Amino acid sequence: MSETQDRMDSMTALLRELVSHPSRTGEDSCDALLRAVADWLARHGIEAQWLRDAGGRVLALCGEVRGARPGPFYLFNAPADTAPFGDRAAWTHPPQRPTLDDGWLYGRGSADSKAGIAVFCHVIAALAPRRAALSGTLGFVFDAEEHSGTFAGIRCYLESRGGESISGVMIGYPGNDRVVTGARGFLRARVQLHGVAAHSGSSSGGGINAIDRARALMNHITAAPLPGADGQFPLPPKVTITGIRGGGSFTLIPDRCELDIDLRLTPRFDQAAARHWLTQLTVALDTDSGAPSTRIDWQLGWPAYQLPARHPMVNALQAAAREAFGRDLPAAVVGPSSIANLLATHGIPATAGLGVSCRNIHAPDEGVELATLEPAYQTYLGAVSRLLQ
After folding, report:
1. CB of 353 within 8 A of CB of 178?
2. End of a domain among 232, 266, 298?
3. Span 230-255, mean pLDDT?
4. How many domains does the chain have?
């Protein structure tokens, strides 16, 4: 059996083990999954450290391969937690059981991002015996709190480094049609619209319906112009109403309605501009309305980011991917934000997508194409070898 086939079998076996440990955010602990990763790394001579919060809860597993000579510090990152199963009846294959079918492995988290962890572990194991030839360090952190949105694992890791610089982070999200080098940011707002309560059957016509006012605001949001894309950042901003709550009694004109609003940011439509844009719409709605003023509660948000086209990490990944996949992978800016947006606020460049071929992320029958494990492995091994040569 060839070395390549041995490695393919090893990556598949590790991926199957990881999928067999459910790690749904908010529902399962990641302890068993990360213990399997730590044990695998230990068998290959790599020590891993556990990061925990003040209560002892596991946030991440981390470690590094340090070269014999000084040089840059690059980091592998991948989430260990996953999306929920959703409706189990909609799955053809059990979400918690790794299932092979026609060259694909199915199971929750197989693509996002347990395949990334399996690939990264094998790259780390390949580099560890070559420490004497490396100039710099490759670190890794597998985050137990990515899908929760807190990103507590990577936050704890950054704090543990005490400000020591990181040259770049490669996040093991799937997909190999491009190298993700930027993303829109986001800002979230919970808008409370008020009315005046009254009996819904009253013949006097009193009351102000807060749901009607929410509908008017939604119409204003839809009609209000937003900046377009520009030559520097290729995507325009986007505003989506993602939730509405109000009323509750057939006989009562509602005096409160709440909207959840997701605002996707660009450099031209940053947090300040987005706050001003939405605030002005609510001010116009409140003018002479006779209802109490609208309130906006601003939620967590991060700015848009974009790496320079000639960043060494991007160039190394593209060159290695060209050799491994046999085609060019362009740099791309995407709509959804990720840990890379958080890292950008710390001045840390990150790529947020290059890996295995996949299908149905966060949906029933999530799966990865096993034949793409090897080119993903070769891409990251080649890129790190270039960066730490």
Report:
1. yes
2. 298
3. 94
4. 2
